UniProtKB/TrEMBL annotation, chain A:
Sorted UniProt keywords: ATP-binding, Nucleotide-binding, Transport
SUPFAM superfamilies according to UniProt: P-loop containing nucleoside triphosphate hydrolases
Lineage: superkingdom: Bacteria
Annotated GO MF terms: ATP binding
InterPro entries, A to Z: AAA+_ATPase, ABC_AA/LPS_Transport, ABC_transporter-like_ATP-bd, BCA_ABC_TP_C, P-loop_NTPase
Domain ABC transporter: 4-249
Name under which the protein is recorded: ABC transporter ATP-binding protein
Organism encoding this protein: Pseudophaeobacter arcticus
Lineage: Bacteria, Pseudomonadati, Pseudomonadota, Alphaproteobacteria, Rhodobacterales
Pfam families: ABC_tran, BCA_ABC_TP_C
Ubl conjugation among keywords: no
UniProtKB/TrEMBL annotation, chain B:
Entry keywords, A to Z: Amino-acid transport, ATP-binding, Nucleotide-binding, Transport
InterPro entries: AAA+_ATPase, ABC_transporter-like_ATP-bd, ABC_transporter-like_CS, BCAA_Transport_ATP-bd_LivF, P-loop_NTPase
SMART domains for the chain: AAA
Name recorded for this polypeptide: ABC transporter ATP-binding protein
GO MF, any single term: ATP binding
Lineage: Bacteria, Pseudomonadati, Pseudomonadota, Alphaproteobacteria, Rhodobacterales
UniProt family annotation: Belongs to the ABC transporter superfamily.
Domain ABC transporter per the UniProt entry, residue ranges: 21-251
Organism: Pseudophaeobacter arcticus
Highest taxon listed in the record's lineage: Bacteria
Pfam families listed in its UniProt record: ABC_tran
UniProtKB/TrEMBL annotation, chain C:
Principal location listed in the UniProt entry: membrane
Family that this chain belongs to: Belongs to the binding-protein-dependent transport system permease family. LivHM subfamily.
Source species: Pseudophaeobacter arcticus
Subcellular location: Cell membrane
Keyword Metal-binding: no
Membrane topology type: Multi-pass membrane protein
CDD domains named among the record's database cross-references: TM_PBP1_LivH_like
Presence of keyword Plastid: no
Protein name per its UniProtKB record: Branched-chain amino acid ABC transporter permease
Spans through the membrane: 15-35, 42-61, 98-123, 187-213, 234-255, 267-295, 307-325
Superkingdom, taxonomy of origin: Bacteria
PANTHER family assigned to the protein according to its UniProt record, in alphabetical order: ABC TRANSPORTER ATP-BINDING PROTEIN, BRANCHED-CHAIN AMINO ACID TRANSPORT SYSTEM PERMEASE PROTEIN LIVH
From TrEMBL, chain E:
Membrane topology according to the record: Multi-pass membrane protein
Stored Pfam families: BPD_transp_2 (PF02653)
Cell location: Cell membrane
Keyword match Transmembrane: yes
TM spans (from-to): 12-29, 49-69, 98-116, 123-144, 201-221, 248-268, 288-310, 331-348, 354-372
Keywords from the UniProt entry: Cell membrane, Membrane, Transmembrane, Transmembrane helix
Domain of life: Bacteria
Annotated protein name in UniProt: Amino acid/amide ABC transporter membrane protein 2, HAAT family
Matching InterPro entries: ABC_transp_permease, LivM-like
Length: 251, 251, 340, 413, 400
């Protein structure tokens, strides 16, 4: 049994069957990559996992509990964090504040009327956020408005925010898109390290094969809403169907 | 010392190269932060220029300055496109003069369908590729012509953004990370298209994190770092110069 | 039965007034995204165009009539209008009588001009600003316009009658074989509204203008990058909206005597209509206008008031609340328009 | 006592609506106040000071002190009116507050003046409550009220329209409207009229079509509009639009009655007022000496005749000054004593009494009609009947005025 | 100090000094001078300044932090006023129970309206709140007259029960509001040369409440709760996917700001025991919106400034009339005097609205951050002249 069990999930948008019949099992403490052509339904699948969309059919179990029918914040409190395809951060807040919010959410739960203490006096949370900023190599930008970060930086910030929640399952939707090569490599290292240290499971969507092959323990190829194959990275690389439908010559 | 060339006349090949697009001593700010710090470069007709640099180097800002978006604010400098002074124009005039930008966050217009997004590009002359021809290039878009543009998958949106630029008859195409989020096969497709339009005489500036890929396509390269130009030469030179690659491109 | 038919007519008539005012507002507020608290003022200015035309046509010189005395006991100065002395009492009288329809001809260019000036001079700088700032600036503008009108025309209502030929009542019931008398001018108002609403619809529906403006609303920058001069289109849109508001005002004058704060009276209501109709939707605004008009007419019937006292005072708000709670974006709202 | 004027001048507070729907009435009141102050200080032609039955006023101010005034804006809102009155009392040291153009405001300010210990001379307020359940010892009203309108109108209506009538009331849904509706209905029912329906209309309504339409089928043959200001202008206009005036119901011509009329309203409703009856406190066309004197000095100064609001407040200013003069003191309690049960003449409505029990004034009430052929823009109403004071007088404990207590005068000491 | 950082402490102290010395500061002109017209240091207006300041501070907790623009906040103020007056009628003239009840009732009312309205966001939310408030106003004006006394407003009368007090005083008047015997209207007048300063018990009570309210709002702004609210404004989606439930956050902010409004309403009734229905009208709700924006939404001190600004105009400008103008300008030759008066005339007295409208426009156009930004610019200019090479201004700190 994997920590995440997706069974027979289907989703239609009007006339379009975006997800056909998806079965997926993600093992604890592995990196599971989902790849596939554009519009294959990868992001849609992720949306079904975090409560952004409700699948028409099927079930999604996380750690033995169903996530369907729960609000996004409840799912997150169960231990699932998500990085979006286009960065979703608090643009009006500073980088440090962005980092503080997930730390508070982790400590205080979904709601807390903590209106009397001041933020600077919450040393434990502050320390944690600062540490995460250092880890993400963004400590020098802590007082910038996050809206004015360059896009690569926004993405790194978002990853940091999710990591600081210490999720059990981290969902990444193209985390390195638009990231400079050096940072991409840093991110790969960081994710590897985190997986090792923190006992975390990662599901990642990526088009950058360099990232996929350096990280993934297992790869599912999705095409037109249904899994084409699921296998080890080596076998996927060699699979002619995948090469033709997805990788092209450049792989 | 640089001497300012006279762009407005038919530039004399002897003094300066017969540049098609010239950027001269351009400075730009976001509010009070000084981002583009006095850059000069030329692009010749029909060539592909790769504009490279780390995250936050100022690539996007440079493209947006050329396209006259107003943000960042260009405080000084001249931009000439085929003897037309872009720096005196507003963005819609620059677009009419022959500039097309594929912005980095795609900027698909909410509330409009795929087809309307394309039609919108053909309201103001000059008109380029027909919508049917664009659908031939990106069949996925043709299949989704009635779908609201912003609900497309990430990669599909990227296709739409590129198609929208081609829908206008442009002389210079500014591409801000066009491959981002695209499946490798599609990237191959687009590369072919770029070569095709280049053969027809289109001039292109390409910003791309996948530097090797960009350099293999490009004729020349400009490398930016913290808002200034640190290298301007042929693409081959960059590929050969390991030091340069390591320092600015981390490859 | 007749009573119900009559209330339906009343509802349609009220509704056409609401729809027309809301239509102008939704062009600015629902489409351009500017919270325009000066819209009521535009409506009011339209009405005062009619007042002004009437005043101009009534411009007169004084003739001393020794046989009569004024309130201080001096010989009475009798007024004679220039129009009548130029065109003769017959023709002149007719021209004065038709002041309100004549005002329409003047109001269109004037209102468009006011719209242009307002947009170019002020609103243009506020598209990107927060709604709060838009509220403050347009509210300030509304006060200023209102006070200027008050300064010149006073605070009391000014009677502006419809032409003799269009006043009085007509038997609408003839269509159904009964007798239902309804004021002619209100019927005119209804058809006028339908024509204007239809005209605006077809303009925005059958041309790309509407799409471009909507696109510009969603993302000005990108539309600019596609070579479209969005500023100019916004200005035109504003001019149209001002003209629609102004025409609604001109036509409304014979129904209720205009005064300087009539705009404020309608302002809140028109915002409610637009939002209930759904942001960004023209048909929504029109539908909501008619719906609220009819409901209001029914709520003011004695039969209903007697078991729900005061319902006519709150019916619009009650309906608004119910609709907004059951339909997240009003009747026909577009996603993403002013939802944050 | 509060704000005892110690210097060479005394300050009065004129608190009128300068913004909002009654701003024009407020402006006219201000003109009359200025005129009154001018006359009190010995300027101008003296106006009604010359016709006033009391000869105490000398044209040298009040008790020899020059009269100064401050003005404020009530905005026709109780809150704003009280704020403005408070600032006159607390900041400017006014010993008397006067003005207003709506009953709610008058009652609210009257309450304030009672608490603060200054005299309040109510301006235009027609609700029975002002000198009924909300009466206050420090407040006096020169204007007439709903009951008096009914009492004055009833005999005229009887003569004109007979005793067999079905009346339909449209009433502005707030306290003034209710008291007027009650008064008129009682007065007409006493004639033998039948009240078909009493319908409340929202104060904010601008289009009354949906309230007018049911009148057509109700069997009523008289419509009573208990509306004031913009409400009345619109409801009357709408009623005429719907052809009510041309209708014949129960074999009789359909009639409309507007119990409280003013010239400014008549102007707003234009031709629609022609032939419609109502009551008013005073009209410039009155031929008595006092009215003539007032119209002359007002008309000469401003170029048009005064409204009833202007007349009311002018009288009140003179009456206050006269009372102080007679009492020999600005002390509110002395003024109250001087005004209570004071009878005088020469201020336009014949012999007038300020009744001590409720501080209501009793004088002749005018029944007017919209003029068919006005000779000028001011000549909109004609007086059909001057109802003598005796006919509109009621006992102080009349049920319509029950509840509340006058209390005792408060000098603020 | 007080758990605030240095900057906030300084601001709190400045506000404290300003409010406590207001009777001096607001009366800068000698009583008999022509400029005395501009003096605002009399009890009623000073009370209004601070009461509307409280109202605006509360409104800003909702609007400034979460961006939810309520167009019905006046309803809570009205409800607070009515509750307080009822307390005076039924219980006693002591202001404490009245104010407490005002806060509690308006809090409950806010909970109800907030719970429903917060199901929508953006303009839809604004219109829902507007609809609720307009309904309350219309009903208060007519059908609910037995509770609200309609148009006239709820007033005290001589026959109210007042179980813990007296219905009428010995000399037959209505008793006055007090704080355990200290009458709210008692005023001590201090005459210094040509100046007269008034120290009013009611004002000082309001001022202390304002300081407490202001202090609390600083704490809220600087607390994790305040940060969460700003995050809600910035990106609700991210909030949800970060495991935070936005609804209770916004609802709590709504209720808190409703209670502030109720507090203001209760104080208003305590200073002047009358509650009018117009307090609940949309124009009143609009006024607090304008105050907040005019002062600077999302800043701490802005709403108070905005409230003062508008109230000053309403009460001072509207009272300038032609006679006053002639007094000011009578040093000029006659013709010129008349001309100047003629020019100024439309803007004062009954034209005060015109001036206010023009000022609204000028402020938004030239000071996008409201009056606070004006202050900041002046401060910066002064500072810039002191040390020209201070270049730390590049980073934009959240304004206060
Ligand atoms: N709200 C929607 N309405 C209609 N169609 C939708 C909607 N959302 C997604 N789709 C369609 O569903 C398909 C799957 O989209 P999805 O975003 O999951 O693709 P993806 O695998 O993430 O692709 P990419 O790699 O390009 O991001 C796409 O074809 C998309 O156009
Ligand atoms: N709106 C903005 N306001 C203020 N600063 C900004 C803004 N946008 C970008 N910047 C800053 O300008 C600098 C250059 O940003 P730019 O987006 O041009 O970089 P880039 O080279 O395109 O980077 P990337 O590869 O990450 O897209 C960065 O330091 C960024 O923080
Ligand atoms: Mg995707
Ligand atoms: Mg970039």
């Amino acid at each position: 049994m994997g920590i995440l069990e997706v069974k027979n999930v289907g989703k239609r948008f009007g006339g379009l069957q975006a997800l056909g019949d998806v079965n997926l099992s993600v093992k604890e403490n592995t990196v599971h990559a989902i790849i596939g052509p554009n519009g294959a339904g990868k992001s849609t699948l992720l949306n079904c996992l975090v409560g952004k969309l409700i699948p028409d059919t099927g079930s999604v179990m996380f750690d033995g509990q169903s996530v369907l029918g729960r609000k996004p914040y409840e799912i997150n409190q169960m231990g699932i964090s998500r990085v979006f395809q286009t960065p979703e951060i608090f643009g009006d807040l500073t980088v440090l504040e962005n980092m503080l919010i997930p730390c508070f959410a982790k400590r205080d739960g979904a709601f807390s009327l903590n209106a009397i203490t001041s933020v600077p006096s919450e040393t434990d949370v502050l320390e944690k956020a600062e540490a995460m900023l250092v880890e993400m190599n963004m400590a020098d930008k802590r007082h910038m408005h996050s809206a004015s970060l360059s896009r690569g930086d926004k993405r790194r910030l978002e990853i940091g925010m999710c990591l600081s929640q210490e999720p059990r399952l981290l969902l990444l939707d193209e985390p390195t898109a638009g990231m400079a090569r050096a940072d991409t490599n840093n991110t790969i290292d960081l994710l590897k390290e985190i997986k090792e240290q923190r006992d975390i499971t990662i599901a990642i969507i990526e088009h950058d094969m360099h990232v996929v092959f350096s990280l993934a323990d297992r790869i599912t190829v999705l095409a037109q809403g249904t899994p084409l194959v699921e296998d080890d990275p080596q076998n996927i690389r060699g699979n002619p169907k995948v090469r033709e439908a997805y990788l092209g010559e450049s792989a | 010392m640089n001497v300012k060339p006279d762009f407005s006349k038919n530039a004399n090949a002897a003094t300066t190269a017969p540049a098609f697009l010239s950027v001269w001593d351009m400075h730009a700010y976001y509010g009070e932060s000084y981002i583009v710090q006095g850059i000069n470069f030329n692009v010749h007709e029909g060539e592909i220029l790769a504009l490279l640099g780390r995250n936050g180097a100022g690539k996007t800002s440079t493209l947006r300055s050329i396209a006259r978006t107003g943000s960042p604010m260009v405080t000084q400098g001249e931009i000439w496109l085929d003897h037309q002074p872009l720096h005196l124009m507003e963005s819609h005039e620059a677009a009419a003069a022959g500039l097309g930008l594929v912005p980095e966050d795609r900027r698909i217009i909410a509330g409009l369908t795929v087809e309307e997004n394309l039609q919108l590009a053909q309201i103001a002359p000059p008109i380029g590729w027909s919508i049917e021809r664009l659908y031939d290039l990106f069949p996925r878009l043709g299949e989704r012509r009635k779908q609201e543009g912003v609900t497309l998958s990430g990669g599909e949106q990227q296709m739409l953004a590129i198609a929208r630029a081609l829908a206008r008859d442009i002389k210079v195409l500014l591409l801000d990370e066009p491959y981002e989020g695209l499946a490798p096969v599609i990237v191959d497709e687009i590369e072919k298209t770029l070569i095709h339009v280049k053969e027809q005489g289109m001039t292109t500036i390409l910003v791309e994190q996948n530097a090797v890929r960009a350099l293999e396509l490009a004729d020349r390269a400009v490398i930016l770092d913290t808002g200034g130009i640190v290298f301007d030469g042929t693409a081959a030179e960059v590929l050969e110069n390991a030091e340069l690659r390591a320092e600015y491109l981390a490859i | 039965m007749d009573a119900i038919l009559l209330q339906i007519l009343n509802g349609l008539d009220k509704g056409s007034a609401y729809a027309l005012i809301a239509l102008g507002l939704t062009l600015i507020f629902g489409t351009l995204g500017v919270v325009n608290f000066a819209h009521g003022a535009l409506f009011m200015i339209g009405a005062f165009c009619a007042v002004t035309v009437q005043r101009i046509l009534n411009l007169s010189y004084e003739v001393v009539d020794e046989t009569q005395k004024d309130f201080l006991g001096n010989p009475l100065k009798v007024k004679a209008t220039y129009v009548e002395s130029w065109f003769g009492p017959e023709m002149g009288g007719a021209i004065i009588d038709w002041a309100v329809p004549i005002a329409i001809i003047f109001a269109i260019p004037i209102m468009i001009l006011i719209g242009f000036v307002m947009e170019r001079g002020l609103i243009k700088h506020f598209y990107k600003r927060e709604h709060a700032d838009q509220i403050l600036v347009t509210f300030g503008l509304a006060i200023v316009l209102q006070e200027v009108i008050k300064y010149f025309y006073g605070a009391n209502p000014i009677q502006t009658a419809s032409p003799e030929a269009l006043s009085g009542v007509a038997n609408v019931g003839a269509l159904f074989g009964t007798e239902i008398f309804y004021p002619v001018w209100r019927i005119v108002y209804f058809f006028f509204s339908v024509v204007i609403i239809g005209g605006i619809f077809s303009f925005l529906q059958f041309t790309t203008f509407g799409m471009v403006v909507r696109a510009g609303m969603a993302d000005r920058e990108t539309v600019g990058l596609l070579g479209i001069n969005i500023d100019r289109r916004f200005t035109i849109m504003f001019g149209i909206a001002a003209a629609v508001a102004g025409l609604a005002g001109v036509m409304y004058t014979p129904i209720n005597s205009p005064n300087y704060h009539m705009g404020m009276d309608f302002l809140v209501l028109s915002f409610v209509v637009v939002v209930v109709g759904g942001m960004g939707s023209l048909p929504g605004a029109v539908l909501a206008g008619f719906m609220l008009g009819i409901l209001e007419a029914f709520a003011s019937m004695n039969e209903i008031k007697s078991f729900l006292p005061g319902i006519d005072q709150i019916i619009i708000y009650v309906v608004a609340i119910i609709i907004l709670l059951t339909r997240p974006r009003g009747l026909m709202g577009r996603k993403g328009v002013m939802e944050e | 006592f509060t704000n005892d004027p110690t210097g060479s001048s005394v300050t009065l507070g004129f608190n009128v609506p300068q913004t909002g729907p009654y701003a024009d009435e407020g402006a006219d009141e201000l003109r009359a106040y200025q005129l009154a102050v001018e006359h009190l200080n010995g300027g101008g032609d003296g106006g009604m000071m010359n016709t006033f039955s009391s000869n105490e006023l000398q044209g040298n101010g009040i008790l020899g002190k020059e009269v100064k005034f401050v003005t404020g804006d009530t905005q026709t809102k109780s809150d704003a009116a009280r704020a403005s009155a408070k600032s006159m009392i607390e900041k400017d040291g006014a010993v008397m507050i006067t003005g207003g153009s709506s009953s709610g405001v008058a009652i609210a300010v009257q309450g304030l003046c009672q608490e603060a210990g200054v005299i309040f001379m109510a301006g235009l307020t027609h609700s029975n409550d002002t000198t009924g359940k909300d009466k206050k010892a420090n407040g006096f009203r020169h204007f007439f009220n709903g009951y008096m309108s009914g009492a004055a109108l009833a005999p005229v209506l009887k003569n004109l329209y007979g005793t067999d009538r079905n009346a339909y009331h449209l009433t502005a849904d707030y306290t003034w409207g209710w008291t007027q509706e009650e008064s008129i209905a009682a007065a007409t029912e006493a004639l033998g009229w039948n009240t078909v329906e009493k319908v409340r209309t929202p104060l904010a309504a601008t289009d009354f079509s949906s309230y007018i339409a049911p009148v057509l089928n109700s069997g009523a043959d008289v419509l009573v509009l208990n509306h004031y200001g913009g409400n009345m202008v619109n409801s009357l206009t709408n009623a005429v639009q719907f052809g009510l005036r041309e209708k014949v119901v129960n074999g009789k011509n359909f009639e409309i009655v507007v119990p409280l009329y003013s010239r400014l309203m008549a102007k707003g409703a234009g031709a629609n007022v022609k032939g419609i009856h109502g009551s008013t406190n005073w009209h410039w066309s009155l031929q008595d000496e006092g009215s003539q004197a007032f119209v002359r000095s007002f008309g000469t100064k401003y170029g048009f005749p005064p409204s009833q609001a202007a007349h009311t407040v002018y009288c009140q200013t003179l009456l206050y000054a006269d009372a102080v003069q007679r009492a020999g003191s600005f002390n509110p309690c002395a003024v109250v004593e001087a005004l209570e049960d004071y009878e005088f003449d020469g201020l336009g409505n014949g012999k007038t009494l300020y009744r001590g029990e409720d501080h209501q004034c009793f004088k002749d009430v005018l029944v007017v009609r919209g003029k068919e052929n006005p000779t000028s823009e001011f000549d909109l109403l004609e007086v059909v009947e001057v109802t003598p004071a005796a006919q509109v007088t009621y006992p102080a404990d009349h049920p319509m005025f029950a509840g509340g207590a006058l209390g005792s005068c408060n000098s603020g000491a | 100090m007080f758990g605030l950082d240095k900057k906030d402490t300084r601001m709190l102290l400045v506000v404290a000094i300003l409010t406590l010395c207001a009777p001096f500061i607001l009366n800068p002109f000698p009583t008999d001078s022509a400029m005395a017209q501009f003096n605002a240091g009399y009890p009623d207006l000073m009370q209004r300044f601070v009461i509307f300041g409280i109202f605006a501070i509360g409104f800003n907790i909702l609007f400034g932090l979460t961006g939810y623009l309520s167009f019905g906040h006046a309803a809570f103020l009205g409800v607070g006023s009515y509750s307080a007056v009822w307390m005076f009628k039924l219980l006693s003239m002591n202001v404490v129970p009245a104010i407490l009840l005002a806060v509690v009732i308006s809090g409950l009312f806010a909970l109800l309206i907030g719970f429903v309205s917060l199901r929508r966001s953006g303009i839809y939310f604004s219109i829902l709140t507007l609809a609720f408030a307009q309904m309350s106003f219309n009903l208060a004006y007519s059908v609910l007259t037995p509770i609200t006394n309609g148009e006239t407003g709820l007033q005290l009368t001589l026959d109210d029960p007042r179980v813990l007090g007296v219905s009428a005083t010995a000399d037959g008047s209505i008793p006055v509001t007090s704080l355990f015997g200290l009458e709210m209207r008692s005023t001590f007048e201090m005459v210094v040369g040509p100046w007269a300063f008034q120290f009013n018990a009611g004002y000082y009570l309001c001022a202390l409440v304002l300081l407490a309210a202001f202090y609390l709002s600083i704490r809220i702004f600087r607390s994790p709760f305040g940060m969460m609210l700003r995050a809600v404004k910035s990106n609700q989606q991210r909030m949800n996917y970060t495991g935070l439930n936005t609804k209770p956050y916004t609802l709590a902010a709504f209720v808190i700001s409703g209670m502030y409004a109720g507090l203001a309403g209760g104080l208003m009734a305590s200073m002047d025991p009358l509650a009018g229905a117009e307090r609940m009208q949309w124009t009143a709700s609009g006024e607090v919106v304008l105050m907040t924006i005019l002062g600077g939404a999302g800043t701490l001190i802005g709403p108070v400034l905005g409230a003062g600004f508008i109230k000053y105009f309403e009460n001072i400008f509207s009272k300038i009339n032609d006679t006053v103008l002639h007094n000011w300008f009578n040093f000029m030759p006659d013709g010129l005097e008349d001309f100047v008066v003629f020019i100024v005339h439309p803007f004062i007295g009954k034209g005060w609205h015109l001036t206010l409208g023009i000022l609204f426009m000028l402020v938004v156009v030239f000071l996008p951050g409201g009056l606070v930004e004006g202050g900041q610019r002046i401060a910066k200019w002064v500072k810039g002249r002191k040390d020209k090479d201070d270049s730390s201004s590049a980073t934009k700190t959240p304004a206060e």
